[in-house]
Write a structure and sequence with these properties.
- By secondary structure, the chain is of the alpha/beta class.
- It has a 7-stranded mixed β-sheet with strand order 4-12-11-10-7-5-6, with helices on both faces. A 4-stranded mixed β-sheet has the order 1-2-3-15.
- Bound molecules: pyridoxal-5'-phosphate.
- The site of pyridoxal-5'-phosphate has 15 residues, from helix 5.
């Protein structure tokens, strides 16, 4: 059976919950993506902050294919070298003691939230079960993680939601003080809200959150699914912020394109997941872990991270310049190579249209809500490629502004 597929095939046989761009990707290397018509695109999306070393990096391909020949899967009834190696590396790169592997960001958050409830249940009983999360946050699409996420449009309409979840405004200390209590078992936040619009956490707010979580014995969870693995110019974003959460979730970039996620936690919390309390068939897959180990080594290198910060600063500065020149951005925000350009009032709600204009120029970009153009290029993107991307973006902005007038 060799059927010819086109973009139209998507509309015929796929669920409609995605609306992909009107071309079909054929292959990709580094920052270059090629569609089935042979058209080339420069990629500033990294598969939504996943391909940290660009597409199909040679070394990663080699590691994956060698590992496929040795051991592709073995279940968690056994353990294997690759899983243990990656776990050891994650522990030594962070302030956490233990690792639980899953296959995605949502599953990592699912595990973190279940752990928080279990810790509280064991220590204080059934009544300590409240979770505090923030408006516009995004934590994935399992029913628990999506209900904890702060965008109701994603969680409404699926029947009764998991209970005892409160959403408050991000960075609002007085709202937080009013909400946290001894009944709070977990607080979850993104150091930079990604899907919610590239909104960094306020550092003063965060210090208070840390102190109050400690006071009320609530587990502080950082969702670093998007900000982690070098994205912000630090291996994990918390490492810049100077406070340590009790648990951290990571996924996206960790597998360089293969699916892997992990929950990291301090021993005093992790110990509550005793044998049989949680599990995952594929979690800790040796192929994904072999790649993960390489990624951790490569991305945690201080020189590599310094370059991410330098390229991020350069890209932000150039975006600001373009924003002023075309009067289309009011602000450029974010950390490292996770940047959001906020559209000016005149173009409010039109990030999707700008993304289309970019696409027509051969530039792949992301949005974060309808007012923010989001860029998350491969972390090893070259300065020359960034400059090329900026030329394409300028062309796109010329179209974008002209079409509107
Ligand atoms: C993408 C993302 C998730 C969900 O990850 P999946 O792998 O799609 O389940 C969770 N949290 C944050 C902050 C994300 O950016």
């Amino acid at each position: 059976m060799s059927e010819k597929v086109t973009r139209k095939t998507f509309d015929e046989v796929m669920f409609s919950c995605y609306k992909p761009m009107d071309f079909v990707i054929d292959h990709a290397h580094g920052c270059k993506v090629v569609d089935t018509q042979g058209r080339e695109y420069l990629d500033l999306t990294s598969g939504i902050a996943v391909n940290v070393l660009g597409h199909t990096p040679k070394k990663v391909v080699k590691i994956a294919s060698r590992q496929c020949e040795e051991l592709m899967h073995c279940s968690n009834i056994f353990t294997n070298k690759q899983t243990l190696t990656l776990a050891s590396k994650l522990v030594s790169q962070t302030d956490f003691d233990r690792v639980f592997f899953v296959n995605s960001g949502a599953e990592a958050n699912e595990a973190a939230l279940k752990l928080a409830r279990r810790v509280a249940f064991n220590q204080a009983g059934e009544d300590k079960n409240e979770i505090i999360a923030f408006n516009n946050s995004f934590h994935g699409r399992t029913f628990f993680s999506v209900s904890v996420g702060g965008q109701h449009k994603y969680s409404d309409g699926f029947g009764p939601k998991p209970a005892a979840i409160t959403h408050i405004a991000f960075n609002d200390l007085s709202a937080f003080k009013k909400t946290i209590s001894d009944k709070t078992c977990a607080v979850i936040l993104e150091p930079v809200q990604g899907e919610g619009g590239i909104i960094p956490v306020d550092e003063k707010f965060l210090k208070e959150v840390r102190a109050l979580c400690t006071k009320h014995h609530a587990m502080l969870i950082f969702d670093e699914v998007q900000t982690g693995v070098g994205r912000t110019g630090y291996f994990y974003a918390y490492q810049k912020l100077g406070i340590v959460p009790d648990a951290l979730t990571t996924a996206k970039g960790l597998g360089s394109g293969l699916p892997i996620g992990a929950l990291l936690a301090k021993e005093e919390f992790a110990k509550h997941f005793t044998a049989g309390t949680h599990g995952s068939t594929f979690g800790g897959n040796p192929v994904c872990c072999a790649i993960g180990s390489y990624i951790v080594d490569k991305v945690s290198d201080p020189d590599f991270l310094a370059k991410v910060r330098a390229k991020g600063a350069y890209l932000a500065e150039q975006l600001q310049k373009l924003g002023r020149q075309y009067q289309c951005f009011v602000q450029v925000r974010g950390e490292g190579l996770l940047l959001g350009a906020v559209l000016s009032k005149k173009y409010a709600g039109q990030s999707g249209r700008l993304q289309q204009c970019c696409c027509r120029q051969g530039l792949l970009t992301l949005v974060a809500g309808s007012d923010v153009l989001r860029l998350a290029p491969p972390l090893n993107i070259k300065r020359k490629e960034l400059d090329r991307a900026l030329v394409l973006l300028e062309q796109a902005l010329i179209d974008f502004v002209r079409e509107q007038d």
